[in-house]
Amino acid sequence: MIIVGAGPTGLMLAGELRLAGVEAVVLERLTEPMRQSRALGFSARTMEEFGQRGLLDSFGDLGVIPIGHFGGMPLDYTVVPGGNFGVRGVPQALTESILHTWATGLGAEIRRGWELAALTSDDDGVEVRANTPEGERTLRARYIVGCDGARSAVRTLSGIDFPGYEATIEMLMADVSDVQVRLRPTGELGDAGMVVVLPVGPNTTRVVVFERGAGVRPTSQPPTFQEVADAFKRVTGDDIHAGTPRWLSYFTDSSRQAAAYRKGRVFLAGDAAHIHMPIGAQGISAGVGDAVNLGWKLAAEIHGTAAQGLLDTYHAERHPVGARILANTLAQRSLYLGGPEMDPMRSVFAELLTHEDARKLLVGMVTGLDITYGTDEGGHPLLGRRLPDFDLTDGPSGAVRAYALLHGGRGFVLDLSGEGSLPAAAEPWSDRVDVVRSQTRPAGAPDGVEALLVRPDGYIAWIGTDGSGADGLTDALSRWFGAPRDTH
Length: 488
Description:
This protein is α+β, with helices and mostly antiparallel strands. The chain contains eleven helices and 27 strands.
């Protein structure tokens, strides 16, 4: 497998493939790891995905934020089980470092200074030509995944359309030290614009400033610190000119989504597949979600165990997720940054948010906690949704968290009934799927559920209830894990 781009998406995908025993080579044009803060956190669902792979402890003592906003409208995220505004104050450089250590520890190869120059594909695989520190090199693999950002060379070279909306506004950013500035973690809107001020480190603060009417600069270069400080003073009246800039950047409201996440043997993930305003840490989280969804499916195809059409479910499942993120970030932009003309809409939203169902809908949307995959209408309400984490009893080894069963990247059947028929039904898939029996019914297990089939990405693919035993289990195993092994 060739992966282009060693950001969070590419590194997460490399680790997923290595868990499944698939060779993963990551090509990265930068010669050194990224050391800038950039994205400063991730969502509640991404916390769970990192927990599923045993990575969360590597981040240290993470304090989650129970309350947040939707487009500046205050919102209590604990209205849904496991709900929170996610983690903030975690520099992207730290996230990448943790994922790099994990992926390379599993055997992934990162080739730095390799810039993609050409890509061709045929019925048997893909071939790439890259410019490297040692000159031009050619590689061939069965598949390639572009995790190479908004200006993706993989997407461009493979001819995948990237429709969407051009930028209409711009927000300037600076990480600045040696200056005191009042924090505005959820944003502060005024007549002249809006600012966000967040702590980045012991002596460093991130300022983000939107100046109403400023438009979009006619350049792709980062702003100067003078530009950021001038705009910040015009909007807030606060003077940060005496500070020391550590990093400068900008973002816009440009929103685009690849028309196809797959074209033959070429796949797109992360910012190569979708770009949008970075509201609520949804950018890095969407990329990690893409990687976790795609990795086990590619591995099954390469190992020859994939069900027919499994690879096509990547686009079918993740494209709607990306489209929903684009929609909600554009809606939040209007609420967040609009002038007095948006006050009627804010009033409507304020009234909607007095209703619990509306709050649950918005929290589930922006955290990714309500994502649902691979189900037909009329099934169990938990079918296709994420597995909640809970303690369970696993034989003589004692208590273990449910997410610990996903550390190895394998699917599993979880028997909560002790009924006994599940191991025999799942045995023909035992090379791909584990069977775990809890000796007692765990607290926190879904009500009325006696058994679950869980995909490697942590989503529930089958549910046994009310004495149903193994009914439907073999069909679900065949659908998601391919043909049974010949046991004769």
